[in-house]
Amino acid sequence: MNNFNFYSPTEFVFGRKTENSIADYIKKYNGTKVLVHYGSKSAVKSGLLDRVKKSLDNAEIDYMLLGGVLPNPRDTKVYEGINICRENGIDFILCVGGGSVIDSGKAISIGVEYDGDFWDFYSTDKKIEKALPIGVVLTIAAAGSEGSDSTVITKEDGMLKRSTGSDIIRPKFAILNPELTMTLPAYQTACGATDIMAHVLERYITNTKEVEITDRLCEAVLLTMIKETPRAIKEPDNYHARANIMWAGTVAHNDIVGVGREGDWNSHTIEHELSGLYDCAHGAGLAVIMPSWMEFVYKHDIMRFAQLAVRVWGCEMNFQNPELTAYEGIQRFRHFLSSIGMPINFEQIGAKKEDIPLLIEKQGISDGWGFVPLDKDAVYQIYMNAVNAKI
Amino acid sequence: MNNFNFYSPTEFVFGRKTENSIADYIKKYNGTKVLVHYGSKSAVKSGLLDRVKKSLDNAEIDYMLLGGVLPNPRDTKVYEGINICRENGIDFILCVGGGSVIDSGKAISIGVEYDGDFWDFYSTDKKIEKALPIGVVLTIAAAGSEGSDSTVITKEDGMLKRSTGSDIIRPKFAILNPELTMTLPAYQTACGATDIMAHVLERYITNTKEVEITDRLCEAVLLTMIKETPRAIKEPDNYHARANIMWAGTVAHNDIVGVGREGDWNSHTIEHELSGLYDCAHGAGLAVIMPSWMEFVYKHDIMRFAQLAVRVWGCEMNFQNPELTAYEGIQRFRHFLSSIGMPINFEQIGAKKEDIPLLIEKQGISDGWGFVPLDKDAVYQIYMNAVNAKI
Question: Is residue A217 within 8 Å of residue B217, measured between CB atoms?
């Protein structure tokens, strides 16, 4: 196990009707003038935004609204938010939505407190030193941004998708009411579930040895997702399925299951180019890329993939040929993704084989990093696995 | 799953040599005049205390020393600490030790900021509203107090052992260096491991339904302890075994694996009277009580205990008679405890059957509470199970 620091000071407020206490939490964390940041349709349509506004009105908390955050949130919206905050003396950002809204809110929170261009944090090694406090009302279990230290933004000019992070941008509080996710269509639910599983798998596939506690914690989240995701898709109003998925999503990415081990985020990075170029859902891109990436790297540590196959996917260990078990686990993962309605190859997300050189050109993979360091040829092979994937 | 709040703002600093940065963390959390609180022998003998003092000296941080905390820490030492803090304007408490030292430090931190008798918080429902900040250098993986919101103190007059808790008393930081636990004798290592497993099991055995994510996370910690504890006992210097146990111990009790579900802390309470009266190690008392308690309650929910038996203890499910599987899991637990050198019955901790009426008289179990609410007859039966236990 490697040395690590773990600091997760977010207050999680979980359960039915918890959004009713939104004003209390904003006050607790010293918000007096709030930017309410949200997406486009669902928060408005469901009436959630109206309820949030009413809570703030009742508590006499001053606020401004900034909606219209798109999936794969854009730098243009961030600049808009920074200006609003500066011009109006905003001291707290309330994100009502999912990962895109929260990531956008995090970017605004950094940008407001920085003299230069906020994109510096995403495009260089520049360290985050200050940020406005943010709070969250979560509406989809997926990105884990409600408890994480990271944020991903897409620069419209060139559709470059980049990330940054710091403990400083972890939300002060996150209100997690599983009821708010019951209206999600099956496809979005499955995309979210895929993202959650990817966050765990990218920690699980590691070269760090002797990490039994975090291995087991990772497996715990995956096993939960395998049980609860099909149930939430079949019974969208099942509170318990939604609740288990929601807490799994937070635990998957606040890093409690990933401390003390190297992760490998190359498949997230490879996917970002897909969703950046085709604007497909991030989870859908991951469903296409992750098994394809695993097929490329699994021989590097067959016993790790065999462990995953046996402990998580219920494969029987082939003691004569562990490689077969390792491979079987990857195929079961792909089958599972397909069974919850996810695409598994290029064609199913409208991606084109001919675009692969362009995708490779743009990709931001760091050289020499990860479970298996990837060069451009490797990335080509992974994209080709994704072109050819079938079940 | 029940509604819950989870707030764990402790900064965990984990790994080799991390205690060298102690002064930095005290400064980060605004400590200027520190009470260094510790036990009796090991912190001194190992040279750790000298290294801590040297770090504070080098950083020119003013401090006073208060050692001599006993296992099952006493109210008398707490009063002493409160006086020292008040008389010397102490603004930060650094606990160098295990659960006893940290629990004592937490009690002092509450007492300093309270006009009345600190025991009020332990003996009544009085709510903790303020406490001095505390930091930890952990020397044994066991109590989980380095990340928990709770503290247990024994009142010498009558040897009453009582607890209290609040998010306010969670340590600001906890330095966790597994190397510091390598000098622990096998018996103490096993006592600590038993305490860790008890913390998980007391969350696991619940009447709350639909808690797959926390069930799985609990199982993850237990599986890790089953693998790593015998290794740490056999190879005391095995860093990896110590590291996995250390993080398991923190995760077991900072409540990340127990949120949204009722626990049952009756066996901890029943044990407290044992270690209170006989001054045996808390972990040893738990090893005697927990399986005996399980034997008394398991028929209340056979499938829960069968799940534990299958998923954690590797029992094969008896589909014709799940009760046998459930019971087999409890026996495997007791065998495991015995295999790591723990006592499993009254005789082995020097407890006497004749004292049972006295133990029952003193016990602080709340009526009508827990997985199976216990009355005095029930507690009598559990103690009798512990008298008669054998493998």
Answer: yes
- Give which of B311, B365, B188, B171 is closest to B254, Cα–Cα: B171
Residue appearing with tokens 């708010």: A180
Q: What is the pLDDT of residues B31-42, one digit of tens each?
A: 999 999 999 777
Query: What are the C-alpha distances in Å from B85 to residues A219, A275, B88, B117?
Result: 46, 58, 5, 15
Q: Which of B13, B14, B219 sits opposite A220 (nearest CB)?
A: B219
Mean pLDDT of the A259-272 span: 92
In A179-301, which ranges are continuous DSSP H helix?
Answer: 186-204, 212-234, 239-253, 266-278, 282-297
Q: Report chain A residues touching chain B, CB-CB < 8 A.
A: 1-16, 18, 209-214, 216-217, 219-221, 223-224, 227-228, 240, 243-244, 247-248, 251, 256, 259-260
Contact between B224 and A212 using a beta-carbon 8 Å cutoff = yes
- pLDDT score, position A369: 80
> What is the arithmetic mean of pLDDT over B315-329?
98
- The two counts, helices (H) then strands (E), for chain A are 15, 8
Going along chain B from its start, the domains and CATH numbers come out as 11-180 (3.40.50.1970), 184-388 (1.20.1090.10)
The pairing of beta strand B134-138 with beta strand B92-97: parallel
Are the Cβ atoms of A212 and B228 closer than 8 angstroms? yes
CA separation for the pair B202, B221 (Å, rounded): 13
Q: What pLDDT band is residue B77 in, cutting at 50, 70 and 90?
A: very high
Residue B370's Cβ-count burial label (10 Å; 0-12, 13-18, 19+) is buried
pTM of the model: 0.96
Q: What is the DSSP string of A163-186?
A: EEE-GGGS-SEEEE-GGGGTTS-H
* DSSP3 helix / strand / coil % (chain A, rounded to 5): 55, 15, 35
Cβ of A216 and B210 within 8 Å? no
Percent of chain A whose pLDDT exceeds 70: 99
User: CA B305, CA B329: separation in Å to the nearest integer?
Assistant: 7
Q: Do B18 and A11 touch (CB under 8 A)?
A: no
Contact A260, A1 (CB under 8 A): yes
pLDDT tens readout for residues A347-364: 999 999 999 999 998 776
pLDDT for the residue numbered B42: 78
